[in-house]
Design goal:
The protein is built from five helices and eight strands; from the N terminus they run H-H-E-E-E-E-H-E-E-E-E-H-H. The protein has 277 residues and is an alpha/beta fold. The strands form two sheets. It has a five-stranded mixed sheet, with helices on one face. It has a three-stranded antiparallel sheet with strand order 1-2-3, with no helix packed on it. One of its GO terms (molecular function) is metallopeptidase activity. Keywords: Signal. This is Dual-action HEIGH metallo-peptidase.
Amino acid sequence: MKKIKLLALCAIVAGFSTSCQKEEIANETQEAALEPTKEQLVSLANLGVNTSDVTIQKLTMLDGTTGNYLVAGDINIPVDGLNKLAELEAVADGNKQYRTTNLVSSGNRNISVIGYTGSGYALTSKMRTALQWAVNNYNALNTSLNFTVSFSASTNADMVVYNNGAAGGGGSAGFPSGGAAYKWIQINQGTDAYSTNVIEHVMTHEMGHCIGFRHTDYQSRQSCGQNTNEGSAGVGAILIPGTPSSDYTDSIMLACFGSNEDGEFSSTDITAINALY
């Protein structure tokens, strides 16, 4: 009897161990599936997105929609929408890119913006002021874009800016698709520790992505203290007329920001926006 009990206990222990191993293998498989494929990385590089630190994350937006996104720094691109974005045009001299071919179409350039005030995701008072200043930055330019901003718990707008509660300064957004501006702009809670001018810089930067602008230094990320150059075959640039072909240290579209930003466009930023819109 004792022997039978001992064998039964061994069977239970063996079964438990086997289950743990299967669970670990399943988890490893799931994690592996969330790593970007080589093909996806090539597509991102051809879009002018730095691929040095890309992950796939499941993100849930304020309206409850959930999906897998390729996350590269402050850029979020839906995995199932990657092939819908046009690649950058190549130029012979290899100048860096500044914009994407995915822009906001002429019929979608009256852009409504909501600064979210709903429970759990509300912008702070400083963030709301900074968003108003960012909208003012764009409306002060002589372009075909016109932004209107309001503050509410609604998500019924072309752009919705909200506090994602994350630590650290910064935010994230995406690129236009189907002729419409990207909708969701997430601002990290940690950004509130900076001055209103710095938050204005972050807001203006993320809005820039939503209307089609890439990082000025996407190839090198020199503003982040890096020196990364993708060097992938076929990765070119769309150099906007009147803008420099080298990384411009005061552009609002640099990949990383400092604690002394004034939140205003540089003269080159203004030239670029006027050229496109």
